[in-house]
C-alpha cells in the first residue's frame, strides 16, 4: 500500500511540474501577471578591450518578476542603440521594454557593449559591429554557463531571444544570421577578422552555446539580406517608412555620416518570405527612426506586436493584440550569393500574395515567355509596373480593366517584380519570372 501511495504522490508531483512548465499558464508571458519587477544592476558578464586598446568590463542589468518562483524562464537580451558610438543599457527604450516584459513573466537582460570607432568610416564601422556581436555572444554564453553551474537566474536556455533598437537590432541580427567569416570578406580581410578575435570573440564564457530562439528587430538591418538563410531562427521586425538613419528598405545607413548600404526590415521580411523563415513584420507608415522612443502610443504597439511574436514562439494559444499591417514599398532582392558562390536571390512566390493583399489578382503563365495575362475577380486593375532585380523600372502600362494581356518580349530572361494598382487604391506586388 505504501508503494501505491508513493506512486500516486510521484505522479501528482510530475503532473504539477508539467502544468507549471506549460507556457502562458494563467496568462503568463501574454499579459502583465506580475505587478512589479526586480532589478539587479551592473552584473559583470565579460570583459574585452575597446577599439583604442583600453580594458573594458562588460555589464548588464537583469530584470525579473518580483516574487517569481518559476525555475525555467524565457530570457530576452536587449541591446541598446546609439550608432555604435553612444547609448547605454539604461536607455529609456531598453528600460521600458525590460520592465514591461518582466511584468509578463520574462527574465530580461539589458546589456552594455564596447562602443566607439575611429576614423568614422565603413571599415571601422564594420569592426564596431563585430565587437558588439562578440559582446552579445558573450552575454548569451553567460546565461548558458549560469544554467549549467549556479542557476542563479533560472533561465530556460531553449527560450533565449535577442533583440534591440537601431544599432542594438543590427547587432542582434548579425549574431543570428552572420555565421561565416567569408560573408564579411568584402569589408574586412581575414587577418583583420582574426586580429579582432573572429566572430565569436573573447569577451567571456568561452565554450558555452550562443544558440537563440529568435530575434527582435526594432529599426535594424543586415549588411546583406542573403545572410538570412533557410533554416535560420525566426524574427519579428518593426520599422518606420521614413527612417532616415537605418532605411526601411535598402539604403545607406547614415547616423550623421554616410557609412554603407544596409538591407532594412522590409528587405529582410521579403527575404524571409522567400526562404520560408518565419517573419512577423509591422510597418509604421511615415514614421522616422525608432518612433517608440519617447512616444507611448508607438511603444504600446511595439510591445503588443513583440508580445504576439513571443507567445507564438513559446507555443501559446493566445489572441493577437496587434495585427500585422501591409508592408509598404516593393522590396527588390538584388543579385547576391552565398559564400560557396551559389545564388541567394530567391523570389518569394508562395506567400507574397498574402503579404501584399493581391489574392484576387491572377497572373499567368508564370514563369512566362513573351506574354503574361493579369486577371482580377473583384476590382479593375488600373496599372502595372515591372522592376528588374536591381530595382530599375523596365515596363509600365495603364490598364483600367479587369483583365489584360501584356507583351513582354523585350524583357530578358530573369527574375522581376510586378507592382499592381487596383481601382480601390490598393497597391501590391507579385514576382514574375521570364524564361
Put the structure in a nutshell.
It contains 8 helices and 18 strands.
Q: Could you estimate the helical fraction of the residues in percent?
A: 25-40%
Radius of gyration: 24 Å
Major beta-sheet overview: 8 strands, mixed
Number of helices: 8
Outline: globular
Structural class of the helix and strand makeup? alpha/beta
CATH class of the largest domain: Alpha Beta
Q: Strand share of the residues?
A: 25-35%
CATH superfamily of the largest domain: Alpha/Beta hydrolase fold, catalytic domain
Q: Give the low-confidence spans.
A: 1-21, 349-356
- Tell me the number of strands: 18
CATH fold name of the largest domain, please?
Rossmann fold
Strand order of the largest sheet: 1-2-4-3-5-6-8-11
Taken in chain order, the helices and strands follow as HEEEHEHEHHEEEEEHEHHEEEEEEE
In the CATH hierarchy, the architecture of the largest domain is 3-Layer(aba) Sandwich
The whole-number mean of residue pLDDT values reads: 88
Distance between the termini: 77 Å
Q: What is the total number of structural domains?
A: 2
Topology, element by element:
Layout: H1 2-21, E1 37-49, E2 55-65, E3 73-79, H2 92-102, E4 107-111, H3 122-148, E5 155-165, H4 167-177, H5 190-196, E6 214-218, E7 221-222, E8 235-240, E9 250-253, E10 260-264, H6 265-275, E11 279-284, H7 296-313, H8 352-356, E12 361-364, E13 371-376, E14 381-388, E15 393-401, E16 403-407, E17 414-422, E18 427-434
Parallel strand pairs: 3-4, 3-5, 5-6, 6-8, 8-11
Antiparallel strand pairs: 1-2, 2-4, 7-10, 9-10, 12-13, 13-16, 14-15, 14-17, 17-18
Amino acid at each position: 500500500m505504501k508503494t501505491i501511495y508513493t506512486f500516486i504522490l510521484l505522479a501528482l508531483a510530475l503532473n504539477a511540474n508539467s502544468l507549471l512548465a506549460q507556457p502562458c499558464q494563467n496568462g503568463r508571458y501574454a499579459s502583465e501577471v506580475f505587478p512589479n519587477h526586480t532589478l539587479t544592476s551592473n552584473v559583470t558578464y565579460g570583459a574585452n578591450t575597446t577599439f583604442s586598446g583600453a580594458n573594458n568590463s562588460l555589464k548588464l542589468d537583469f530584470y525579473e518578476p518580483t516574487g517569481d518562483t518559476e525555475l525555467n524562464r524565457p530570457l530576452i537580451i536587449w541591446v541598446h542603440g546609439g550608432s555604435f558610438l553612444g547609448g547605454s543599457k539604461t536607455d529609456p527604450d531598453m528600460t521600458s521594454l525590460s520592465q514591461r516584459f518582466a511584468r509578463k513573466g520574462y527574465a530580461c537582460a539589458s546589456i552594455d557593449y564596447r562602443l566607439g570607432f575611429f576614423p568614422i568610416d565603413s571599415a571601422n564601422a564594420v569592426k564596431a559591429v563585430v565587437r558588439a556581436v562578440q559582446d552579445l555572444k558573450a552575454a548569451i554564453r553567460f546565461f548558458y554557463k549560469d544554467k549549467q553551474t549556479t542557476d542563479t537566474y533560472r533561465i530556460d536556455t531553449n527560450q533565449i531571444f535577442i533583440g534591440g533598437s537601431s544599432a542594438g537590432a543590427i547587432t542582434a541580427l548579425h549574431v543570428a544570421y552572420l555565421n561565416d567569416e567569408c560573408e564579411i570578406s568584402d569589408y574586412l580581410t581575414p587577418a583583420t577578422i582574426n586580429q579582432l578575435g573572429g566572430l565569436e570573440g573573447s569577451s567571456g564564457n568561452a565554450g558555452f552555446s550562443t544558440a537563440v530562439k529568435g530575434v527582435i528587430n526594432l529599426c535594424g538591418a543586415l549588411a546583406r539580406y542573403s545572410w538570412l538563410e533557410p533554416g535560420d531562427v525566426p524574427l519579428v521586425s518593426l520599422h518606420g517608412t521614413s527612417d532616415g538613419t537605418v532605411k526601411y528598405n535598402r539604403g545607406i545607413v547614415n547616423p550623421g555620416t554616410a557609412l554603407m548600404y544596409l538591407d532594412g526590415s522590409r528587405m529582410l521580411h521579403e527575404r524571409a518570405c522567400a526562404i520560408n523563415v518565419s517573419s512577423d513584420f509591422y510597418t509604421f507608415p511615415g514614421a522616422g527612426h525608432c518612433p517608440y522612443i519617447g512616444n507611448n502610443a508607438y511603444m504600446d504597439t511595439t510591445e503588443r506586436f513583440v508580445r504576439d511574436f513571443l507567445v507564438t514562439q513559446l507555443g501559446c494559444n493566445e489572441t493577437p493584440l496587434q495585427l500585422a499591417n501591409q508592408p509598404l514599398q516593393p522590396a527588390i532582392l538584388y543579385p547576391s550569393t552565398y559564400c560557396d558562390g551559389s545564388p541567394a536571390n530567391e523570389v518569394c512566390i508562395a506567400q507574397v500574395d498574402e503579404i501584399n493583399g493581391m489574392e484576387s489578382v491572377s497572373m499567368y503563365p508564370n514563369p512566362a515567355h513573351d506574354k503574361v495575362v493579369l486577371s482580377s475577380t473583384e476590382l479593375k486593375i488600373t496599372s502595372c509596373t515591372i522592376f528588374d532585380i536591381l530595382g530599375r523600372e523596365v515596363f509600365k502600362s495603364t490598364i483600367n480593366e479587369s483583365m489584360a494581356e501584356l507583351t513582354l518580349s523585350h524583357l530578358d530572361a530573369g527574375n522581376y517584380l510586378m507592382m499592381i494598382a487596383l481601382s480601390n487604391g490598393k497597391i501590391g506586388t507579385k514576382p514574375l519570372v521570364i524564361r
